[in-house]
């Protein structure tokens, strides 16, 4: 309920901002940002008993990246069980996930698989892995059994390459070393918020910070707080938007390409630029140089990053193939905590007879995704460059099912609507409703459907005027109309 209270207070401050003036509004937001930070950390209890480090998540990403050369996407749990057997003489888990098939099975079966990965280590390297594995296993305690039933190591080979090189330099022998690993994300995002303040102003930075620590799912410290470089993709994407705000389009393209290389789906945020250039060419006009610079930065950087991974034998083409297989298995066993229009359409399809449910879900999902993509591209034509890029949120929300902590990407809507207090109040009002419903009603898995419906309402509320301006839908004109947003 604390998150609901904080976000509701943000709504009130934004609604009276014109009356109380700029200084008092910003002062109130500073106080609310501090309160949001306290709530975010569960009043400094973090992950329980004051433990800042998210050992479950950090273990997957630290070990998975540092030993990616030996383990790839399928060897982490087997190697961990072998290390436990050698250190303790037995294994503590009954079940474990077979990362080759994606299925839950007996820990003994995964232990047997682990022997082949054990042989891929040199003796000194294995001793180092066993030492690191012991550190995480001891820190997890009884929760180690949950660790080996998760979905393994999931990031792209590019993320594995960069994070792995850094992990080699970060010792976890001491509690201080483990804390350093867990603090990297916080330091990184603090720098991003500072950059937003320099480019867009103090208020935008404060509101972005409050959203990042109170957003339903992603703003919950329990999910990915105190982990290892889980925010790198978001930091790169937000810095790309900040670069756009400064008019540094080529740099922005580089940063969005980096975000794409780290998580793939951020590539959807280039669609506004692509659509603008294509429409210009179709109408026989010269495309905007700003978007051409942006796309040049993206097109130059993304293949270069891919080439960097190919230069590393362990992170090269076979690793990308392994990533594709791993993603397919993950999608087949996707956890329940996902959001998006596809989640809504799939739920609606379950109301139909069983024989119609699956095809109806595909049809409804396809139509809804196409509608969201079309709306995102069209709305992007009426925004400034920052707003146009932020419309990728709508396309992303319509086309993909993402785990709820990726809702943090909606921070781009705050930046895009920075001059519209009422729009910002609507955004935080939706967050307050989601938190209130989750706290009061519970609803379990159905809460993620409610969350998705409220986000759909959010997009409609933010852009209702443009969406209802039917006379501008056809014919598609160029150059696009860039409306001056109300303040």
Features:
487 residues; mainly alpha; two-stranded antiparallel sheet; 4 strands
Description:
The structure is a single chain. Helix content is 69%, strand content 2%. The protein is built from 25 helices and four strands. It has helices at 2-15, 17-40, 55-66, 68-71, 76-88, 107-118, 123-140, 144-147, 157-169, 175-200, 202-214, 221-224, 232-245, 249-263, 271-282, 289-311, 317-332, 341-349, 354-380, 385-390, 392-399, 411-416, 421-440, 446-462, 464-467, and strands at residues 95-97, 104-106, 338-339, 402-403. Strands 1-2 form a two-stranded antiparallel sheet. Strands 3-4 form a two-stranded antiparallel sheet. Helix 2 (17-40) packs parallel to helix 11, helix 5 packs across helix 6 and helix 10 (175-200) packs parallel to helix 13 (232-245). The longest helix is centred in the C-terminal third of the chain and has 27 residues, at 354-380. The chain is globular, with a radius of gyration of 23 Å.
Question: What is the topological layout?
Answer:
Layout: H1 2-15, H2 17-40, H3 55-66, H4 68-71, H5 76-88, E1 95-97, E2 104-106, H6 107-118, H7 123-140, H8 144-147, H9 157-169, H10 175-200, H11 202-214, H12 221-224, H13 232-245, H14 249-263, H15 271-282, H16 289-311, H17 317-332, E3 338-339, H18 341-349, H19 354-380, H20 385-390, H21 392-399, E4 402-403, H22 411-416, H23 421-440, H24 446-462, H25 464-467
Antiparallel strand pairs: 1-2, 3-4
């Amino acid at each position: 309920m604390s998150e609901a209270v904080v976000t509701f207070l943000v709504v009130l401050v934004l609604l009276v901002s014109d009356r109380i003036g700029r200084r008092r509004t910003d002062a109130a937001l500073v106080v609310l940002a501090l309160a949001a930070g306290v709530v975010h950390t569960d009043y400094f209890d973090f992950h329980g008993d004051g433990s800042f480090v998210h050992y479950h998540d950090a273990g997957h990403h630290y070990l998975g990246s540092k030993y990616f050369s030996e383990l790839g996407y399928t060897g982490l749990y087997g190697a961990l069980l072998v290390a436990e057997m050698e250190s303790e003489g037995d294994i503590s888990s009954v079940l474990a996930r077979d990362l080759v098939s994606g299925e839950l099975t007996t820990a003994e079966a995964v232990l047997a698989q682990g022997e082949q990965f054990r042989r891929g280590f040199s003796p000194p390297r294995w001793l180092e892995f066993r030492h690191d594995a012991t550190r995480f296993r001891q820190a997890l305690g009884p929760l180690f059994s949950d660790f080996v039933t998760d979905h393994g190591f999931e990031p792209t080979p590019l993320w594995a390459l960069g994070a792995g090189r850094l992990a080699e330099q970060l010792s976890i022998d001491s509690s201080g070393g483990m804390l350093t690993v867990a603090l990297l994300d916080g330091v990184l995002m603090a720098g991003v918020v500072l950059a937003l303040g320099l480019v867009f102003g103090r208020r935008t930075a404060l509101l972005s910070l409050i959203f990042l620590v109170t957003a339903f799912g992603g703003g919950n410290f329990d999910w990915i707080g105190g982990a290892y470089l889980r925010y790198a993709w978001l930091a790169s994407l937000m810095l790309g938007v900040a670069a756009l705000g400064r008019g540094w389009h080529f740099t922005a393209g580089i940063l969005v390409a980096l975000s794409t290389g780290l998580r793939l789906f951020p590539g959807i945020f280039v669609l506004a630029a692509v659509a603008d250039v294509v429409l210009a060419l179709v109408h026989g006009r010269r495309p905007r140089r700003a978007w051409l610079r942006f796309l040049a930065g993206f097109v130059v950087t993304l293949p270069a990053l891919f080439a960097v991974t190919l230069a590393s034998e362990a992170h090269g083409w076979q690793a990308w193939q392994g990533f594709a297989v791993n993603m397919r298995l993950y999608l087949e066993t996707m956890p329940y905590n996902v959001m998006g229009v596809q989640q809504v359409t799939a739920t609606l399809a379950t109301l139909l007879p069983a024989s119609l449910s699956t095809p109806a879900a595909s049809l409804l999902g396809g139509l809804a995704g196409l509608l969201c993509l079309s709306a995102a591209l069209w709305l992007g034509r009426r925004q400034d460059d920052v707003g146009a890029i932020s419309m990728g949120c709508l396309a992303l929300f319509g086309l993909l099912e993402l785990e709820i902590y990726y809702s943090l990407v909606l921070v781009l809507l705050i930046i895009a609507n920075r001059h519209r207090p009422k729009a910002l109040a609507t955004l935080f009002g939706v967050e307050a409703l989601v938190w209130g419903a989750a706290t009061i009603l519970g609803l379990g898995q159905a809460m993620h459907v409610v969350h998705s419906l409220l986000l759909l309402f959010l997009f409609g509320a933010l852009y209702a005027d443009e969406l209802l301006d039917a006379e501008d839908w056809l014919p598609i004109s160029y150059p696009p109309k860039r409306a001056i947003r109300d303040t």
